[in-house]
Amino acid sequence: MQIGLHIGPLREFPPIDEFLDFITQAEDMGFDPLLFSDTVSLSNFRILDPIAIMTLAARATKTAAIGTCVTNPVTRHLSVTANAFASVDHIAGGRTILGIGSGDTALYLLGKKYVNLAGMRETIKVLRALLDGEPVTFEGPELCSTWRKPDLPIYLAADGPKMLALGGELADGLIVGAGLSSEVNDWVRARVGEGEAKAGREAGSVPIWVDGIVNFGPDRDAVRDATRPRMCTRANHNFRVAYNAVPEAHMAGVKNFRENYNESDVGFKNKNADRVTDYLLDRFGIVGTESDVVGRFEEIAGQGVETFLVAMPFDLKERFRIIDMLAKEVIPRVR
Hints:
Layout: E1 2-7, H1 16-29, E2 34-36, H2 50-60, E3 66-68, H3 78-92, E4 96-100, H4 105-108, H5 117-132, E5 136-137, E6 142-143, E7 154-157, H6 161-170, E8 173-176, H7 182-199, E9 208-216, H8 220-238, H9 248-259, H10 278-284, E10 285-288, H11 290-302, E11 307-311, H12 316-334
Parallel strand pairs: 1-2, 1-11, 2-3, 3-4, 4-7, 7-8, 8-9, 9-10, 9-11
Antiparallel strand pairs: 5-6
Helix pairs in contact: 1-12, 2-3, 3-5, 5-6, 6-7, 8-10, 11-12
């Protein structure tokens, strides 16, 4: 199993040299791909713009794939997105991945809503045409980029059944944060398979990258409580439209979290964390003692997961600590 990083919002804006040191150390430790969130620095979020960081990372790294986890079709025009990613890919020597989703916190903090299924279908087709240098009509005019990037992959972030199927049909790969259990992974593969079949693709041919939040410490209860704020946006996004694959025994707790969620309260000290149950922690994360974390990674690798993206708490120093442990204790066991 390959292990990459999903590098999301921070507690504080980091010194850039320290941030780049984190990226280069991660590559040297074997983490690949390195993907950066695209959201806004509002509420308690501090986030460096992913295009700027990807450009720096393209020069600071040598072999790791670089991309987003994820951008959206709203906060940038699709022609701007295509141009930005093609530019980074040009700098990185062909190592760039365009990760895109329907939009969640990055849009809701601005008073906007996610893009529907039809909009995401159009998004993938338009971006593919622009990256390939083919003419495409979008929002009125016909557009034709002068870039030629047919090998720059588009990965769709998807959690719900229809979006997963769309990824299987049109995308080059999927980034999935629907959960980490074998039951959820089987459900995800079946939905992606429906899209593959519709497009005449071979079953299992579209890569699925599983995204989960990771943290560890000597005191299991303390580290789990400390991770609840980081889990909020993940769980809220996943259950925004439907309660997919939730066991009946945990439905009440999940509904209590979702129905009382405050969209404008995000980040390291948000009060939504008070309603994050143990089920939510374990569905979307690997959180506990070091031995707990190692054992869970071995279990997930045994499920046939090929790439796991590690999202982490909001503190950069904690992230250094986590990747150091994973590099020493997990990567050698699962690769």
